[in-house]
Amino acid sequence: MQDTLFPAAHIRCLMITLLLGLLAGCALAPSRLAPSSQNQAAQLEQQGQYAAAAQVYEHLAAAAHGEQRSELLVNAAQDWWRAHDSAQTWSLLAQVQGQNLPPMLHARIEYLKASLDFAAQHPRIALKHLAYPLAPLSDDFKALTLLLRAQIHVTLDDSVAAVEDLSEREAALGNNPDAVRDNHQRIWMVITQPHAPVDLATLPAGISATARGWLALGNIARNAWQQPQAFLQQLQAWQTRYPDHPANTDIVPDLIAKQRELVTYPARIAVLLPVSGNYQAAADAVRDGLFTAYYQLPQTSSSPSITLYDSGGTAAEAQAAYQKAVSAGADMVVGPLTKEAVSGIASLSSLPVPVLALNALDSGRTLPTGLYQFGLPPEDEAAQVADRVIAQGLKEGVALVPDGDWGTRVLTAFSTRFSQLGGTLLGTQTYPPGASDFSTSITRLLNIDQSQYREEQLAALLDTHLQFEPRRRQDIQFIFLAARTADAKLIRPQLKFYHAIDVPVYATSQVYRPGDAADDDLDGITFDDMPWTLETSGAAADTRGQVAKLWPGNFTDNSRLYALGFDAWRLIPLLYQGRAISTPVQGMTGLLSMDRNGRIHRQLDWATFDNGTPRLLAPPAAPAPMPVVAAPPNPQP
């Protein structure tokens, strides 16, 4: 099961794959075509020569009439689509005439139009084409239609409708166990990818019990990471309510097995954190987040023991703390926190006890076996901003970043990823963080200073005063803003003042300080952040509220570090004894996955400021295409 997002350009390839099965049982009957012509078209299709096959069908259509001509034109249109010629496909479909076409032929035409519109990134128009009745159609064509409808609903961020489509699709799959299991995996992908739980109380009244059961199970699975102590109880209640649900056959047993892994901890765990100095407040937040996760699990005689060690402020002190933990019999080490301390651990020749470091080192460095890296690097967030703007078709922009190391790192990460994806950064400008007036940086970024200079030169030449309003550059589609909250609250209004009110602004999580009062000066800024911060209901919101009450003095400044500690504790069973994260898991800090180098990656949520508060947005693109069932071969004469 895939877990990455796919670019919109791949939709066309998906549709072509789907259409390979289209009309499998619907091509012209042998009695209505000359056998030699039918053989020629079928052979060309089998050889992948779709343009040539389409020309054969067009030639036959020129001599045919009525319904037969319509069928031939549709066959030709289908093969032109397979040959990547959308214009010719539309042209042939426009030639199909007849108000009372048979239901199957009408469905074939509308399905093909829906595929064309979906590939052209017009999902709402595509969906309208699929409104034809399913009852008169073959089971194979019903299954194809419902799969395409589900794909479109996923693209429109309507996972509820997609699950309903796929639940209905199962009835058309017959008694094919492989196809049914495949359909279950499609459904599971839909309900485990969204950025927030489904609100079961607001589901449409007419939704089927099967679809409702899938969505309820998805919520339970999502909370399995964030609230493991409630998992078995919730699952048993679900099974009581849905005893005959199809998920009981293959999804539920897998959930139970994975849950056992999630709560199976090694006996002795060491935590390396600085207990004094500049990082003490941050370390306290990580520690308290870790213990929040620890105490969510039932405490028994077999519960793991936790020992805290002072990792100090240097690489040597971190190495000494690690050696001390190993000598005391630790089975797993969590920490240290600072980059210098993690670098000290990474410099050791070997790690007899695995380490889950709470920061990430620069890529390309050789690391010892057993070192895992999990942190909140702003570079990763900046790269995901690049993913977002490209997914939304924005390929030309400018960047405004603060002077200093943080601004340089974030800009490098954004520009590198943006360039890899085909984007062009038209300009960059730095600003002094903590200032109150950013006009110089903004006017340079928007080329307004050049516009003013030209006006001054012209006025001097004419020796007169001109009525003039400076114009900003018109070639930018967005602004990437790297800023902390205080600066962003001043920069956003000044961007509006300098005529950039209609230019989308994208930022990383640093633009939002949880707990601050609503401030509409930030309105219109879109940013990525973790579920812990953005979700307003569900397990993340509940746990965040509890932590905020327990540690109010430290929470506002270090909120996200509590989530880091929480997820670090949950990761231990998945990483202990060299295990890997086989499928992404929904953590407090994001959707977590791991690369081959042991680095944990976070897929973040998205929000935009609306009336001064964050409002959750849909993911930047549809989830990866669900596996497509192999199409049956075209009938032979």
Describe the protein in words.
- The protein is built from 24 helices and 15 strands.
- Mean pLDDT is 86; it is low at 1-33, 451-462 and 622-637.
- It starts with 9 loop residues before the first helix and ends in a 21-residue tail after the last strand.
- Among the domains are: 10-246, Tetratricopeptide repeat domain (Serine Threonine Protein Phosphatase 5, Tetratricopeptide repeat), CATH 1.25.40; 379-534, Response regulator (Rossmann fold), CATH 3.40.50.
- It is globular.
- With 637 residues, it is of the alpha/beta class.
Topology:
Elements: H1 10-19, H2 35-46, H3 50-62, H4 66-82, H5 86-95, H6 103-119, H7 123-129, H8 139-155, H9 159-169, H10 177-192, H11 209-226, H12 231-241, H13 247-262, E1 268-273, H14 280-296, E2 305-310, H15 315-327, E3 332-334, H16 339-346, E4 355-357, E5 371-373, H17 378-391, E6 396-402, H18 405-420, E7 424-431, H19 439-445, H20 448-462, E8 478-481, H21 485-497, E9 505-507, E10 525-529, H22 531-534, H23 539-550, H24 552-575, E11 585-586, E12 591-594, E13 600-603, E14 605-610, E15 613-616
Parallel strand pairs: 1-2, 1-3, 3-4, 4-5, 6-7, 6-8, 8-9, 9-10
Antiparallel strand pairs: 10-14, 11-12, 12-13, 14-15
Helix pairs in contact: 1-6, 2-3, 3-4, 4-5, 4-6, 6-7, 7-8, 8-9, 9-10, 9-11, 10-11, 11-12, 11-13, 14-24, 15-16, 17-18, 23-24
What descriptive keywords fit this protein?
alpha/beta; Serine Threonine Protein Phosphatase 5, Tetratricopeptide repeat; five-stranded parallel β-sheet; globular; disordered N terminus; disordered C terminus
